[in-house]
Amino acid sequence: MSLSILVFAKQVPDTANITGQAMKEDGTVNRAALPAIFNPEDLNALELALELRERYGGKVAVCTMGPPAAANILRRALYMGADETILLTDRRFAGADTLATSYALACAARKYGSCDLILCGRQAIDGDTAQVGPQLAEKLDLPQITYVESVEWVRKGRIRAKAQIDGGYEIIEAPTPILLTVLASSNAPRPVGAKRLMQYKKAVTRSELSARHGGRDYEDANLLAAEEEGLRARGLWIYEWGVDDLEADARHFGLAGSPTKVKQIESVVLTGSGTKDVPPTDEGIRDLVHELIEDHILS
Amino acid sequence: MSNNPIGNVWIYIEQDGGAIAPVSLELVCKARELARELKVRTEGVVLGSEIPESLIATLHAYGCDHVFVADDAALKLFSPVPYQKVIVGLAEAHRPNIFLFGATVVGRSLAPRVASRLQAGLTADCTALRIDEFEDKASKRVLKNKLMQIRPAFGGNIIATIVNSWQDPQMVTVREGVMALAEPEEGRKGTVTPVPVALAPEDTAVTIVERFKQPSEVNLKGAQIIVSGGYGVGSKENFRLVYELAETLGAAVGASRAAVDAGWIDHDHQVGQTGVTVRPRCYIACGISGSVQHRAGMSESAKIIAINSDANAPIFSIADYGIVGDLNVVLPKMIRAYRARV
Question: Is residue B287 part of a domain?
Fold first, then answer.
């Protein structure tokens, strides 16, 4: 048996490590100042995909939608062991909410072709919505198992997985193809392989290759075409798809394809009034505890 | 169902074995407020097998004017595909204006599929909902009576108001504890429509072969005193002090998301936008910096005591008492002072 697995990943700002430098004067976060990372639970999805490939054989492809720089997480996926990578990038994808995002990813999955499993992380740390996985499953008319802890087996067009539910777990059996969303607790993503890093750090997208050659018009340059051929043969080619590469209704992409609109963004101003400072001394803390007991706040 | 120009306010009622999820009842109470303002009806949607009469009566008592009941053996346990099919069919037939889901594991699996199918916007983990008008720049129209979907956004001190500018329903998910539970009116009457269930074999191809569920032992929502630990606690071992203070005070143990993500404590303990919202008599925040997301889940506590080594931590801005200091020093002092007094 051999499995074809497609993993969807997202490059996200590292919201877990917001430092002083990333705060603007008005107290809001300067998103551009945050390092961009591979969304943590998408690494768990990729790890699960690689483990399943080791168990059953097959192929792991990783796809991300984002700005050109999102190619960096695809290189990381190659270092970890992915066979093939796809960057969905186009200005017309920008400003997408979860519905427009899932539409674009569904178009990409269709273009990629049939696969047995589609894997996503449970949620991305920049929005925490956990919506794109199930929306993508619905758009592809696939069943889904969310909050996957582990996959017991895949065989004969069926899968058995353990998934978290509120207050417990379920063991679920389902037909493939199916979409799974994977939890952080499911595994420990493997580190980047040094040998693979040396091998795949040269992997590029069409735009990156073109830029390397001074941004000359790629289509007309036979030289570049020959170079692309060589890179493809060595597995160093990151596929780059835009709106025009997908069979789709362009009105469903990006901001135009997003029903949710941001009406207002409010910065929260912290006033800091009325806080009683308590010194961290024996007396200070004793007086505080006594006051709270007398006021029936404690006990 | 209704002669109103706009649809009704719907709530997805999550139930398991006849027990309603607490968040669903909280949402019924909120839905009733919204429906009053919009002059429409509050309607619940419940799926399952052998759903008891008493469950429907409870929904009526909390404020549902009407309940759609899809009762079928195939719906005994939640499964995303058949549940989606039944709910989408209902929503297409009745066109609700607003559709509220609890942000439970079930709600987070189901609501996105329903929204995707209906081409509806869906906003996750809202912390407030209200009705207002919205000027849609795309269509250059002022839309009246829209649902303002309010949530903290993106890692920092930002609150975003989001609107679904397309056709109804306007869909959101809300965590448990965010909306207050009102008193039920025993004996309040409402109506019921049984929903015929017609599923194709492929709709039920996913089967649950084993299920383990036990009620959570963590009862943050009901706790009068909560001692919460954050990233500043520093390690799983150091959480021992948080537990010790909680035990001394007869308090429940909470945590910030950073502490949960670090693996020091279980998600059941998480307070905040993506955890539980609490309103205890006393909230003791230990080593919690106080992001908007965390404050959204505890700022209505009657008294807030913050302990943090960083004097500039935002948590101090909402604290009644602030102690700038090392937890490893402060918490043992609090434990000793309390034990000496009582």
Answer: yes
